[in-house]
Structure formats: C-alpha cells, structure tokens
Design goal:
- This protein is an alpha+beta fold and 163 residues long.
- It is built from seven helices and six strands; from the N terminus they run αααβββββααααβ.
- The strands form two sheets. It has a four-stranded antiparallel beta sheet. It has a two-stranded antiparallel sheet with strand order 5-6.
- The termini are far apart.
Length: 163
C-alpha cells in the first residue's frame, strides 16, 4: 500500500489547505510557518509584534482530528520541552490574555477563541455573537491562524505575561 492510500481524509484536506492562497500568503508575509505535522497534530509558529523580552513568535500545537468538519483545537506549545510552556512565557495584553487564559481561569487545554473546537463547547451563543470568527465546516486553518496573528500583532499585545 502506498503512503497516499494511508493518508486519512482529514489529513489530506489539511495538507491541501496548506497549499491554499490564504495559507501561503500568510506564510509569505511571515505571519506564520509550519514547523511539522505529526498527524493528527501540527505545530505552527505564529509571529508576534516586537516587544522587549518577548519571543518573535509563539508555537501552537493543533489537534486536527476530523478537520475541517470538526474545528481544530490548539494550545500554546514549547517545542523544546514538548509541553505547554509555563504561564510566564505566555503572551499578555487585555484581549490577548482573555484568549491565552491562565489555567486557573480556564482549565481546558485550548485557546479561548470561537474558532476553537474545545473552547466553543458550552457556548451556544457564540455562532450568533461571533459569526465571523466561529469555525464552519468550509473554514481552513488560515481562519484560525488569522485570528491568533491579529491578536499577536495588535497594539493590545504587550509581550510576555508577568509571573
């Protein structure tokens, strides 16, 4: 059996979306870059605005099971430690901190975004309240990445969270 025959439909669709104009434009503009795929996970680094003492990018670890009919879910990731980074290495800002919520406030391992599968659970009002941000079955990974990129390059982003 060839490798192409063993690729599941959700992975095939994700890989196809990595070749889409929206994804390639974001990559060409250095808004994000794919680090690797270890299906059903993908590590993607999202660039951040320059802030003193803060990294130039943050890595997200996506779980893409059922993609794109099921929305992705992602969490901040330390690729070297192969774990979620300590909270003092998380991005900060008023709205940014709402999305990258401390585990004491939001124990679910995901970003608090309407396009996140885990985050959207239990929020039946989000499809109406955040119609442009919610995940739809025809959405692509760029939809999620754009929301994170906009946060990390906004004036609200202040750098790293203080311990």
């Amino acid at each position: 059996m060839s490798v192409a025959q063993t690729v599941l439909p959700d992975e095939r669709r994700f890989r196809s979306d990595l070749e889409s104009g929206a994804y390639l434009l974001g990559a060409a503009l250095c808004r994000w870059r794919l680090l690797r795929i270890d299906w059903p996970h993908a590590l993607i680094a999202v660039s951040a605005a320059p802030r003193t003492g803060a990294p130039a990018e943050f890595v997200l670890r996506f779980n893409l099971t059922g993609y794109p009919q099921a929305a992705p879910t992602a969490l901040l990731w330390d690729d070297i430690a192969n774990a979620e980074p300590p909270e003092n290495r998380w991005p900060a800002g008023t709205r940014v901190s709402c999305v990258f919520r401390p585990r004491a406030q939001w124990p679910k391992p995901c970003l608090y975004l309407p396009c996140d599968r885990v985050s959207a659970e239990g929020h039946p009002d989000w499809p109406q309240q955040y119609a442009n941000e919610i995940w739809k079955p025809d959405s692509t990974i760029s939809h999620y990445l754009n929301q994170v990129s906009e946060l990390l390059t906004s004036s609200d982003y202040t750098g790293l969270r203080h311990a």
